[in-house]
Amino acid sequence: MVRKIPTQQHLSQHQVIEFTEVINNFGNVYDTNFHFFNAPKPGLYYFTCTLTSYQSERLNFELAKNGALVVKGYAADEKQSVCATVSAYLHLEKNDKVWIRNGDNSINSDSMVYGNYYSSFLGFKIQ
């Protein structure tokens, strides 16, 4: 599990969301330099990510596998921060990569993520 992202403003399209604190990294599967999960062996994996929008800003984000979109998340409220969660079961081959990135800027050009332990990313092998 990784968490604690700094508040990031003005994320560019498909910019990787950088989780800077690793809570558990069994097998060193989360790359802390490039901020992706790297599958150590083939199998079925589960991923979930909760991101919190910064104050009243919109947040559009995606879970990606090897650069391809898997699922989108969106959080927005005119008055306060809100959370959105995405989850996916994925069959991965060895060295497949999964990460969280900013979404399509045509939907929202100014995504802002609220860090300070309000956002997290988790992935693990099921079988």
UniProtKB/TrEMBL annotation:
Main location group: secreted
PROSITE patterns: C1Q
Domain C1q: start-end pairs: 1-127
GO CC entries: collagen trimer
A Pfam family recorded for this sequence: C1q
Keywords: Secreted
Subcellular location: Secreted
SUPFAM superfamilies recorded: TNF-like
Protein name, as recorded: C1q domain-containing protein
Species name: Pinctada imbricata (Atlantic pearl-oyster)
Organism lineage: Eukaryota, Metazoa, Spiralia, Lophotrochozoa, Mollusca
